[in-house]
Every structure is written in structure tokens, then in C-alpha cells.
Amino acid sequence: MAKGGTSCSSAIFLTEFFSIILLGYFFILRFSFIFFSFHHMARNLHK
Fold first, then answer.
1. Rounded to whole angstroms, how far apart are CA atoms 39 and 1?
2. Residue ranges per domain, the chain?
3. In this predicted structure, what is the pLDDT of residue 42?
4. How far apart (Å, rounded) are the C-alpha atoms in residues 20 and 26?
5. pTM of the model
6. Over the stretch 1-47, which tens digit does the pLDDT of each residue have?
7. Distance from CA of residue 45 to its chain's centroid?
8. Distance between CA 30 and CA 27 in Å, rounded?
9. Per-residue pLDDT at 46
């Protein structure tokens, strides 16, 4: 009984950890995309 409960809690922890990693990955992706687009726009403005 206790063994099953620990495995279930560990699975929930793994899913939460994975979702946090995915959220951080998408945030970094969006931030890098905005940064590169802004850099490209600034370079075009300097021309």
C-alpha cells in the first residue's frame, strides 16, 4: 500500500517537473524569437 502511494506521488512529481521544463522551454523559445525579431528590426532601422 505505502509502496504504491510513493510510486504514484513520484509519477505526479515527474509529470509536474516535466511540465515545468516544457513551460520554461517554450518561454525561452518565445523570448529568443522576440529578441531575434527585434534585433532584425533594429538592424533594418539602422540601414
1. 57
2. 1-47
3. 86
4. 10
5. 0.50
6. 456 556 778 888 899 999 999 999 999 999 999 999 998 888 888 76
7. 31
8. 5
9. 73
Q: Any idea which residue has 518565445 for its cell? A: 30
Nine cell digits for residue 6: 510513493
Q: Which three cell numbers stand for residue 39?
A: 534585433
| C-alpha cell, 16 | 509536474
Grid coordinates of 1: 500500500
- Cell numbers representing residue 30 in the block: 518565445
Distance CA 18, CA 10 (A): 12
